[in-house]
Amino acid sequence: MNTNQTSSPAVGIDDIAFATGANRIDLAELAGRFGVEPAKYYVGLGQSEMSVPAADEDIVTMAAAAAAPIIERHGSDRLRTVLFATESGIDQSKSAGVYVHRLLGLPQAVRVVELKQACYSATAALQFAAALVARNPEETVLVIASDVARYELHSNAEPTQGAGAVAMLVAADPAILELETATGVYTQDVMDFWRPNHSATAIVDGKLSISAYQDAIEGAWADYRSRGGADFSEVDHFCYHQPFTKMAIKAHRHLAKSLGSERTQEELDAQIEPTTGYNRRIGNSYTASVYLALLALLDGDDDLTGRRIAFLSYGSGAVAECFSGIVRPGYRSALRSDANRARLDARTVVDDARYLQLLEDAASADVHDSDRPRETGAPFRFAGVVGDRRQYEPTSA
Q1: From CA 155, how far away is CA 191, in angstroms rounded?
Q2: Which residues pair with 222 in a beta bridge?
Q3: DSSP string, 190-223
Q4: Closest Cα partner for 392 from 96, 20, 189, 131?
Q5: Which of 3, 35, 106, 109 has its CA 20 to 30 A from that of 192?
Q6: What angle (nearest 5°) sits at the alpha carbon of residue 160, between those of residues 155 and 166?
Q7: pTM for the full model?
Q8: 288-320 burial: b if 16+ Cβ within 10 Å, else e
Q9: Ramachandran region of residue 258, left (φ > 0), alpha (ψ -120 to 50) or beta?
């Protein structure tokens, strides 16, 4: 019997960065077209703006832009795996991550895989990454979540569109967040939100989606607790999937009530409000939204050292997972808080007419042969399609 066993190293998020579309539209613009007061969106949805990609941006360009600062800081010598999570896939066969691999100049000795399960798959990617690193702490894994949320024009869901990408480097002895081992999972076949192959936009059953979300969160939390997860009272902040921020706030109140928590509404809101800042301005980013919630929390004013954060990740259809992590000492030195806020402020403001034109341009992006105009100021661009082959290049090309 081997008595010289050593404890496993801490594994978690060593670096995190994000990217989003080049443009933004104030939801007051949509309110004018819909003939409603802006408060319907500002308060009712908890959304103020949404990101709109330029004509030469998509999930690949945003993913590469999010990941580039991480590769610049850490290099790629230890990187062995790239996991790309999205529900806005651009090909039925080839992983969008392979394009990112080339744009970032990564070594050939790297595995690249795309994962899909609605808005949940980035959490699966994070857990798979943690397992790979635990097996070999000398390796790192790059997890990327990137999506463009699109719904039918003039539908009730249109104001909840958005676009964004989050990249995370998973490593041993992480600088930002140590993942705890307990996780809770939940799966149920529910037709609350889906996108058939023939459709460019999702089909949504709004009422069912809300109830399915809440049921899945309850189920994942119960499984998390049964496997040794922290009690509700032991968690300082909660990061939820945020299709719109008000939904996450209501889900947190619902979970607290179902658990018999005695915390006041103000105390509950304080646990989640600091996570909503980026999603409120970006809109729905599907797989990336729960990690944009984390980034907003980390970039906030509070010192989070040693605090426990619970994550409640949901993907329609439906799969959910609950897990938790502890913020590491010195985490702020690994952040890019000022640059993150500046990136949001630097987006070009567009009116409703320009926004509609951008949507029309996006709808024509996947024809057999097309050139994309040079618009984005991001590091990488989608140049068009030649003979059914998508073309990506640095913007400096």
Answers
A1: 19
A2: none
A3: --SEE--TT-SS-EE-HHHHHHHHHHHHHHHHHH
A4: 96
A5: 35
A6: 145
A7: 0.96
A8: bbbbbbbbbbbbeeeebeeebbbbbbbbbbbbb
A9: alpha
Q: Pull the structure tokens for residue 391.
A: 């073309």
Q: What is the DSSP string of 146-203?
A: EEEE---TTSTTGGG-EEEEEEEEEEES-SSEEEEEEEEEEE----SEE--TT-SS-E
Q: Name the DSSP letter for residue 9.
A: P
Ranges 70-79, 191-200, 249-258: which has the least confidence: 191-200
Active site residues: 87, 119, 241
Which residue, 120, 142, 334, 304, is CA-closest to 212? 120
Nearest one of 151, 341, 162 to 244, comparing CA atoms: 162
> Per the omega criterion (within 30 degrees of 0), is the bond before 318 cis?
yes
Helix (H, G, I), strand (E, B) or coil at 50: strand
In CATH terms, the superfamily for domain 11-394 is Thiolase/Chalcone synthase (3.40.47.10)
Bridge-based pairing of strands 111-115 and 140-149 is unpaired
Q: What pairing do the DSSP bridges indicate for beta strands 370-371 and 389-394?
A: unpaired
Instruction: Map tokens 């909503």 to a residue.
Output: 276
Q: What average pLDDT does the segment 330-346 reach?
A: 98
Distance of CA 364 to the CA centre of its chain: 25
Q: Which amino acid, residue 120?
A: Y
- Tell me the pLDDT tens digit for each residue of 43-77: 999 999 999 999 999 999 999 999 999 999 999 99
Report the b/e string of 88-116 with b at 16+ CB within 10 A. bbbeeeebbbbbbbebbebeeebebebbe
The two tokens of residue 94 are: 């080839």
Which helix H or strand E contains 125, and what residues bound it? helix 121-135
Phi–psi pair at 319, nearest 5 degrees: -135, 140
296: enclosing H helix or E strand: helix 289-298
